[in-house]
Amino acid sequence: MDGKDLSPGAKLKRLRESLGMTLRYVEEQTEEMARRKNNPYYAISRTWLDDIENGVHVPNIYKLYSLSAIYGRSWVYLNSLFNLRLSDLTKDQAIYGVPKTRLLPKSEEEPETVVLPLRFRQEQTLAETKLLAKLAVVWSDIPIHLVRLLSPNESLYGFVGLDDDTMATLVRPGSFVQIDVNQRKVLDGPWAAEEDRPIYFVELRTAYACSWCELHGRELWLVPHPKSGRPTRRFEHGREAEIVGQVTGVAMRIASTPGKPMRRGNRKADPAQE
Q1: How far apart are CA 8 and CA 58, in angstroms?
Q2: What is the C-alpha to C-alpha distance for residues 75 and 65, in angstroms, rounded to an integer?
């Protein structure tokens, strides 16, 4: 799962595929953005994106903006894939600064508000469990002092898909979860109550999962809540499944998500996740 040795384009392709987006989908979305902004530079054709992913082209600022919006990843992150470190800008400004003495402008590094994901563009994107940064596509202004309370340097945030009732009533479909990335060790029981048993957020090859976990040798077992009716899934630890962190907080609806009632009983397992 380590992508450090991948080329910038290959990393971009891996990101797109992890989101379940095709070249055609990205083309359609960027064309819609270009129409809405009345600027053709935002559009990315399938051929052009394929060339970018294969290292033939480097995206310009408009195309990086489009990809940042559609993939739900920050401008800084996408630039870093192409080895452009925006964190060096202040240092380079000092080296190549203007010759005249001047007052420094008010800092632009920390605005009064920032944008955070609050809702989603298409209902079908909510079906699967995902990390929040890879899911949100519609943004809204949030006061910066509230963002600090989220401890973004220590935690990640995930969304439990509307089709994912693995943890039944403990973590309902449609829940937002806080993930402590410093707690990746699978702890053993016994537990006095099911509420005390640690829940983990797990990265699979092409998906994410939120469940109890057990480590049996080199196998990581994803153990569902008994009320879910789902089977235990087994993966090779470190190759097929990797612990993102332990779930330390949950924000969820008490009632079922509108249009997506919780389902009970036995079901057919997803062959792709067996």
Answers
A1: 9
A2: 7
Model pLDDT for residues 56-67, shown as the tens digit of each residue: 988 888 999 999
Question: What is the sign, positive or negative, of the torsion defined by CA atoms of 74, 78, 84, 85?
Answer: positive
Buried b vs exposed e over 151-171: b needs ≥16 C-beta within 10 Å? eeeebbbbbbbbebbbbbebb
The DSSP element (H or E) to which 32 belongs, if any, is: helix 23-37
Query: If DSSP codes are grouped into helix, strand and coil, which group holds residue 216?
Result: strand
pTM above 0.70, yes or no: no
Q: Is 66 helix (H, G, I), strand (E, B) or coil?
A: helix
How far is 139 from 136, CA to CA, in rounded Å? 8
Count CA within 13 A, CB hemisphere, residue 162: 15
Can you tell me the distance from the alpha carbon of 125 to that of 136, in angstroms, rounded to the nearest whole number?
9
Which residues are paired to 266 by β-bridges? Answer: none
- The residue assigned the tokens 């479909």 is 173
Q: What is the pLDDT of residues 195-239, one digit of tens each?
A: 899 999 999 988 889 999 999 999 999 999 999 999 999 999 988
C-alpha closest to that of 136 among 192, 186, 176: 176
The tokens describing 168, both together, are: 């039944």
What domains can you pick out in the chain, each with its CATH number?
8-94 (1.10.260), 113-273 (2.10.109.10)
Question: What does the chain come to in residues?
Answer: 274
Q: Does residue 237 contact residue 218 with C-beta atoms inside 8 Å? A: yes
Amino acid (1-letter code) at residue 208: Y
Question: Residues 6, 8, 11, 17: is their CA dihedral positive or negative?
Answer: negative
